[in-house]
Specification:
Blueprint lengths: L11 H10 L1 E3 L8 E4 L4 E2 L6 E12 L7 E4 L9 E10 L28 E4 L2 E5 L2 E3 L15 E4 L5 E4 L2 E3 L2 E2 L5 E4 L3 E4 L2 E3 L2 E2 L2 E6 L13 E4 L6 E5 L4 E4 L2 E3 L12 E5 L5 E5 L2 E3 L6 E4 L11 E5 L1 E5 L2 E2 L1
Parallel strand pairs: 1-4, 2-4, 3-5, 4-6, 5-7, 6-8, 6-9, 7-10, 8-11, 9-12, 10-14, 11-15, 12-16, 13-17, 14-20, 15-21, 16-22, 20-23, 21-24, 22-25, 23-27, 24-28, 25-29, 26-27
Antiparallel strand pairs: 18-19
Length: 315
């Protein structure tokens, strides 16, 4: 429990102590809404399950200066533990990248290799987000392999389930709102609006255009994929059900204003049900190996095994 019945008792120090211990975290801050300024990133334990429940009254404010939560296991798709966030708001968080890509002339990639997850970075853990608000959060602004303005999850055994949540005005090099790498995304009854991928020129591996090695590749392009939602990696699926993905933007010469999903081994399945995706800007393509759905409109860039669209409006 954070707090002893008053707003003043709900301090950052009390919250940081609770997060460090993990388990179920609730708040006793009085009857009104409370904003807690976050002055340092809080590290979530990786050896147990943690629940943070704001009771619809708590806002965590990163002050445009710090990432709020970090769950960072050294393993990859191995950990059964995870984090649940519910009935709480995350605003004005900002991850601060430090791993700058070696300077090289364009079209070689510019920007950073780190700085993922403006409000939350999660590696090798399972994530549930229920009835949460993410507004004005920022990940690294430039780079071919970074981003996730609100959330970035990678190497997760079971991925992320996001239900009844709102993502507004978040930004990152890729994945303006939510980004995943080798992590399934199941998104239900959620709103994604006015999120922006701030990188440009997408990304590729092309030795004829760049002689400099970064991440083991001759990388060109500096991101911009996935104005709202982004997924990359082998053998995982993305499901949207009951969502509204409205007025999000990919970067210049990049793809997927609403959704960017590239299943590298063409084994991932994209399912879209009862969803509206309109007003998004960016490049697009649809590439599938099976099934009858071969075009999902101008808001999506996707490589997948198959796509199913039911009762949805896609621009």
């Amino acid at each position: 429990m954070v707090g002893s019945g008053t707003a003043a008792s709900c301090t950052f120090g009390a919250l940081q102590t609770a997060v460090t211990l993990g388990g179920v975290i609730t708040f006793n801050c009085g009857s009104g809404a409370v904003t807690i300024p976050i002055t340092a990133t809080m590290n979530v334990p990786i050896n147990k399950n943690t629940v943070i429940d704001g009771g619809k009254r708590i806002t965590l404010d990163g002050g445009h200066a710090v990432q709020i939560l970090n769950f960072n296991s050294a393993n990859f798709q191995a950990n059964n533990n995870g984090l649940t966030l519910q009935h709480i708001a995350f605003v004005n968080a900002k991850s601060m990248p430090t791993d700058m890509i070696p300077t090289a002339p364009a079209p070689c990639s510019q920007g950073y290799d780190d700085g993922q997850g403006g409000a939350l970075f999660m590696r090798d853990g399972n994530l549930a987000v229920i009835d949460c608000i993410f507004t004005g959060n920022q990940a690294a602004p430039l780079g071919p392999d970074t981003g996730g303005g609100a959330i970035y999850i990678e190497g997760s055994k079971n991925g992320a389930v996001i239900v009844g949540s709102t993502f507004t005005n978040n930004s990152g090099a890729n994945a303006g709102a939510v980004g995943s790498l080798y992590a399934e995304l199941d998104l239900y009854n959620s709103l994604f609006t006015n999120n922006t991928a701030t990188g440009h020129d997408a990304n590729n591996d092309d030795a004829s255009m760049c002689s400099v090695i970064n991440n083991g590749q001759n990388e060109i392009g500096s991101g911009g994929n996935g104005g709202a939602i982004y997924g990359d990696g082998n053998s995982f699926n993305i499901t949207l059900c009951g969502d509204a993905v409205l007025n999000n933007a990919a970067g210049t010469n990049a793809f997927g204003g609403g959704l960017f999903f590239t299943s590298d081994n063409m084994a991932g399945i994209l399912t879209i049900t009862d969803t509206t995706m309109t007003g998004n800007t960016g490049g697009h393509w649809t590439n599938v190996s099976t099934g009858s759905v071969t075009d999902v409109g101008t808001a999506i860039g996707v490589n997948a095994k198959s796509i199913t669209v039911t009762n949805s409006t896609l621009q």
